[in-house]
Amino acid sequence: MDASNVPYVALTMGDPAGVGPEVIAGVLAAPETASLQARLIVVGDSQRLERAFKLIGETLPIVRCESIEEAKQSSVSEDGSRVVACWNPSTSDLSQVQDGTIDAQCGAAAYDWLVAATEAAKSGIIDGIVTAPLSKAALHLAGHHYPGHTEILAERCGVTDFAMMLYLPQGEIVRSEFGLGVAHVTLHTSIASVPGLLSQSAVSEKIELIHRFLKRIGAETPRIGVCALNPHGGEGGLFGNEENEIIAPAVEESRKKGIDANGPFPADTLLQRAVAGRFDGVVAMYHDQGHIALKLIGFQKAVNVTLGLPIVRTSPSHGTAYDIAWTNQVDSGGMKEALRVALQLIQTRDSA
């Protein structure tokens, strides 16, 4: 790849009291990262990053940058040796933060880093972002009342039609040639609120979003299965009418648009069939309906992709893991996989 076409990807640090700095350090120190056709920029706190490198027994030179433009220039050294460009656009004071705790300063910093990276991606300065986990509680303590990354990204990008999708690549577990994506109609909300949030338009929008994603990665005619909300698919209305009144009409609407959508099917059997290769994508009605299944079979391989954005954004599927943060027990596999998927999506932008 010509040097002028090498993509720039920002790695946002997430909550600095959690595992974010460690998983980023693990990615940057990995031997395979040196051969990637990409230039990586850390958006976060350089002192936390330096400490994370020491924790995992690695030493990479960190270049502290005052702007994203300077970080791009500093992401590769003149002699070709490995360096880490780190840009901190936040003024939050992290000096008194205790590891593994919920802290308003961490929430403020994580928000600042995410917003700055998002704006850089929107303006085309960088090509995509991979986000380390943040704490929703810390965000709220800092006065940022969002349920998570997805909603912040949607607001900053000015989109209303978006979805959280977990994606597992094809392999020993997932048999579909194109991997398996599971998009969610509702996100970070209570189970009690889910039925009232479902609508035919919301379900059909998510079907279309995952359809477009799968076509982008090479599926000519994506096969999409749609989950029922209620056990046994509602048992003909005995356990609820959402299937007949909302989900089935959304599936039919999508089929009229030429999308190979099927359902609603009971979630327990649908997800098993999808993993076995019957479907390329699944639309789940709520967060845990999709998350539990994919995390159970591929926790370190599952990647969170935000659908519907004008930018590329991925993240690992795990959270801040305060219980093991800063103890050198963290596996960076999820962050590595998120970076791999981000680079795949950057390469296929023209087909989006």
Automatic annotation (TrEMBL):
The keyword Secreted does not apply. It comes from Thalassoglobus neptunius. It holds the Pfam family PdxA. The keyword Chloroplast does not apply. This is 4-hydroxythreonine-4-phosphate dehydrogenase 2. One of its GO terms (molecular function) is metal ion binding. Keywords: Metal-binding, NAD, Oxidoreductase. Its EC number is 1.1.1.262. SUPFAM superfamilies: Isocitrate/Isopropylmalate dehydrogenase-like (SSF53659).
